[in-house]
Amino acid sequence: MTDAFDPRTAARLALACLDLTTLNDADTEADVARLCARASGPHGHVAAVCVWPRLAAFARRELPPEIRVAAVANFPDGSGDVARAVRDTAAIAESGAQEVDLVLPYRPLQAGDEATVRAVLSAVRKASEGLLLKVIIETGEFSDLNLMARACFLSLEAGADFLKTSTGKTKVSATPQAAKVLLDAIATEPGAVHRVGFKPSGGIRTVADAATYLALTADALGQGALNPRRFRIGASSLLDDIERVLSGQTSAAAAPSGSY
């Protein structure tokens, strides 16, 4: 693995590549307003704010142009309902958001139904034309790494712009092992290696956690991929530790992985 990043370097990169996220069922405009207020701080701004589609237009109004808005589709269960996924995507596009985080229909894939997976991916890619499409593999629900790799291939084949590990709503979220599967899929696909990005998400709470995924990405895709166009981190609480480190304070202790 690439030599470890020092904490301040990792914190600066993580901040620039952070998708600051709130996806609680009861989220309100007030919750999103508080999140948006934190998106620009004394050390710089995050890459994007990620919210429910119903709050995406509000987030777009609250944020400066340099901070993007992402919203989730087919979330969090990743159903095989094409119409639902397209409705979510259309709402995101109409809101003025720039990014769609789509949950791949992983249960149909596990049941051997690739046709449904392809149908959802194709329809959402068409509905999200002009927007950045991140496909959430939901890696914590895969015990078969070969099938996880197949999910990645189908996503890349459909034109995904990012592969993302997790919704943060399952028992296991981002792990280094899953990250390697997604990164290897990007690195070995000729049409993806210089274009597609990687987003670990869920359970990433400290700068040390973030540094692990920065190093894995640099190893697989090169140091040049460590920018918001090719690397994101989905997190709700990581910003606290980033600000501690960049303010010269001590980082928090690493938290157990597997939750948002």
Question: In words, what does this structure look like?
Answer:
By secondary structure, this protein is an alpha/beta fold. The protein has a single domain (7-246), classed as Aldolase class I (TIM Barrel). It has ten helices and ten strands. Strands 9-8-7-6-5-4-1-10 form an eight-stranded parallel sheet. The protein has a two-stranded antiparallel sheet with strand order 2-3. Helix 8 links the parallel strand 8 (162-164) and strand 9. Helix 1 (7-16) packs across helix 9, helix 7 crosses helix 8 (176-188) and helix 8 (176-188) packs parallel to helix 9. The relative contact order is 0.16.
Strand percent estimate: 5-15%
Total number of helices: 10
Major beta-sheet overview: 8 strands, parallel
CATH architecture: Alpha-Beta Barrel
Task: List the uncertain runs.
Answer: 254-260
Helix-strand makeup class: alpha/beta
Topology:
Layout: H1 7-16, E1 18-21, H2 29-38, E2 40-41, E3 44-45, E4 48-51, H3 56-62, E5 68-73, H4 82-95, E6 99-103, H5 106-110, H6 114-127, E7 132-136, H7 145-157, E8 162-164, H8 176-188, E9 197-199, H9 207-221, E10 233-235, H10 238-246
Parallel strand pairs: 1-4, 1-10, 4-5, 5-6, 6-7, 7-8, 8-9
Antiparallel strand pairs: 2-3
Summary?
It contains 10 helices and 10 strands. The protein is of the alpha/beta class. The strands form 2 sheets. An 8-stranded parallel sheet has the order 9-8-7-6-5-4-1-10.
Question: Which descriptors apply to this entry?
Answer:
single chain, 260 residues, alpha/beta, TIM Barrel, eight-stranded parallel beta sheet, two-stranded antiparallel sheet, 10 helices, disordered C terminus
